[in-house]
Protein: Acyl-CoA dehydrogenase/oxidase C-terminal domain-containing protein
Amino acid sequence: LNGRKAVVANAEAADMIVVSARESGEAGDEAGISLFLVPADAKGLTVTGYALLAGGRAAEVTLDDVTLPESARLGAAGKAFDAIEARTAVATTALCAETLGAMETACTLTREYLGTRKQFGRPIGSFQALAHRMSDLLIDLEQARSAVINAAGHLADDRASRERHVSAAKNLMGRVGRLVSEDTIQMHGGIAMTQEYELAHIAKRITMADHRFGDVDHHLERFIALSAA
Structure:
């Protein structure tokens, strides 16, 4: 095996790494991709770890003439695309659920802050403009929750239905996530940007989640293509 895999989450902690590799065909072809189980200490395998901006760690995995036995291939040769796509759908839905939890925490912190921070002798949450803004966020949060539940409920569907519901959820989570991140920071003011405050880290987590497994634009285009098929 030869090649490089970028931003592999927690690769440093793995004893075995599942690697997708093309055995035949051209780039972009669904056929010809296989999965291989590679020991982390295999000769020619290099794992270079680093910290992520939103917390956690990832690594660049480089394969330089890594030699494996035939038994290292998982499943039939060149037939791994469907399995990869199905597992990616599960991972994407799980990421959406994680992002939903982060957004819930961001909204909870903001509601608490609006109830304790005072201006002109009363909590700023009593001011109509902020109260309405918070209400809008909570409505969007419930819409996002429904999208995640809907996607999870369709993971066992046929490919088109599964992928369509997952893309719809991922697109919505990206849009609502950005809104929640920006609005909760703005309603807090400068304190939300400090290293010591929890919301700053949550907002980064929400923002970076949009760029994993396809962002808002990718999943909008994918949803349109799947719906038109």
Q: What stands out?
A: The longest helix spans residues 81-116.
